[in-house]
Amino acid sequence: MNPFIKRSLIIVPTIALAGLVAAGMAMADSKWDHGGWGEMGGNRSDTMVRYMSKVLDLTDAQQGAIKDIMKGQHEGMSGGHQTMAAQLSDLSQLDLGSDAYIAKAKEIGALHGEAMGQRLIDQANMEAQVLSLLTPEQVEKFEVIHDEMIEKRADHIQKHDKKGDHSN
To answer: What distance in Å separates the CA atoms of residue 67 and residue 145, rounded to the nearest whole number?
Structure first.
């Protein structure tokens, strides 16, 4: 088999899967005990609001407003998982190593990258909405916790990067 095709068979699906993993890691953090800012639904948003209420001493009105913001965020994202599943199903129907397979994998990777970018923008907008509800003292506490969470994610990614040589 042509070395270029062989390498493409490894690299292209790996890039697509790495995008999925990176998105999951970017949206997850055990400190907050939830699936990520952008993955709020049902009990996860309840857990997040309870945690924020405890740490930031939120009023009942703030709790309700933040829960509504998170619910809206979750509802806006509902089709993403189904879309990705359909794309991966389409990919699985193609012959491994074929030009069509490689082209589809590249397409999925590009679409996933765009979707991840939009999730990050949506997350930033949601955080801005939450911040607008907080007192100056609560904002200070929120920023400290948020910075700790970002640092923890960065450390996690760096540790993952050092575990093995991913250059092949």
So the answer is: 18
Q: What is the DSSP letter of 54?
A: H
Query: What span, in angstroms and rounded, lies between the C-alpha atoms of 28 and 149?
Result: 10
- The reply to whether 168 falls in a domain is no
Does residue 106 fall inside a structural domain?
A: yes
- Interatomic CA distance for residues 94 and 109, integer angstroms: 16
Residue pLDDT, tens place only, 15-71: 544 454 444 444 444 344 434 444 444 567 788 888 888 999 999 999 999 988 888
How many other C-beta atoms are found inside a 10 Å radius of the C-beta of residue 58? 20
Q: Note whether residue 20 is domain-resident.
A: yes
Question: CA 127, 58, 70 angle in degrees (round to 5)?
Answer: 35
Is 144 a member of any domain?
yes
Please, how many CA atoms are within 13 Å of residue 159, restricted to the half-sphere of its CB? 7
For 56, counting Cβ atoms within 10 Å of its Cβ (0-12 exposed, 13-18 middle, 19+ buried), the class is buried
Closest to 97 in 3D by CA, of 85, 107, 87, 105: 105
- Domain with 64, as residue range(s), is 3-162
Which residue type does 10 have? I
